[in-house]
Write a structure and sequence with these properties.
By secondary structure, the chain is an alpha/beta fold. It has 2 domains: 152 residues; 62 residues, no CATH class. Helices cover 40% and strands 14% of the residues. A hairpin with a 5-residue loop joins strand 4 and strand 5. Helix 2 packs parallel to helix 3, helix 4 crosses helix 6 and helix 5 crosses helix 6. The protein starts with 11 loop residues before the first strand and ends with a helix.
Length: 233
């Protein structure tokens, strides 16, 4: 692909898979009082710049990475700070898994002379050979295991919410067979059910942060916070 204009022209871009992710990470960035210039954007935000159809998905994020890395290295381009947050998904379900996701990003990055300098639970960072340009990658839930954003949320549920979340988990487990959702989507069903029982019910993922339903002192949330600050501050 070749980007022909700059619909998303923020200096700080956090590229995510879709609208649910946008809402969640918008709230995270606000709660941490990060740079207000951060634009949380899924692939479709860039549609006006391309003739071909863009899709909100992990592959959609990876398809944009070439152009965004090219911009990151262009002194006159708007993008100065860049990070990607994608789900690992599950390798057995043709979702790459965390290791192959990291490998795919690394392969794209290598074409622009970026290499992975940190590969740990606390977020990943790719640095350019010039020692100046860099971009971040977080593979949900924790850069170590297969899964997705909902698995991150499950891990960080606050103590006050744990009982209700346990009820949601039991309710999902009790859905009679055959279940309409696949086993690797249990986390999505559990988190959606839990959020459906909030006051008022039926919120998106953003509400877990907005209504302080997560333990922001949990080690995993702290790792995400420190990674975001490293990239964007």
């Amino acid at each position: 692909m070749a980007r022909t204009s700059t619909t998303v022209n923020s200096s700080h871009v956090l590229l995510v898979e879709g609208e649910g992710d946008r809402g969640f990470f918008d709230q995270v960035c606000r709660s941490l009082a990060l740079n207000p210039a951060i634009k949380v954007a899924p692939p479709k935000d860039y549609q006006a710049d391309y003739e071909e159809q863009l899709w909100n998905s992990k592959q959609g994020v990876l398809n944009l990475l070439d152009d965004l890395l090219n911009e990151l290295l262009d002194e006159v381009a708007p993008t100065k700070r860049l990070a990607l947050i994608v789900d690992a998904d599950h390798e057995q379900e043709q979702g790459l898994g965390y290791q192959k996701t990291i490998e795919q990003v690394s392969k794209i990055a290598a074409d622009y002379d970026f290499s992975l300098t940190e590969n740990q639970a606390g977020g990943l960072c790719f640095k350019h050979s010039d020692g100046l340009a860099e971009f971040g990658l977080w593979v949900m839930p924790n850069n170590q295991t297969d899964g997705m954003l909902e698995d991150f949320i499950k891990t960080c549920v606050s103590t006050n919410e744990q009982s209700l979340f346990d009820h949601a988990t039991q309710a999902v487990q009790a859905v009679p067979e055959p279940k309409k959702f696949k086993p690797h989507h249990y986390s999505k069903a559990q988190v959606a059910t839990w959020l459906a029982w909030q006051k008022p019910p039926g919120h998106g993922l953003y509400y877990a942060v907005y209504d302080n339903l997560l333990d922001t002192d949990h080690a995993l949330f702290q790792e995400l916070e420190q990674w975001l600050k490293k990239i964007f501050i």
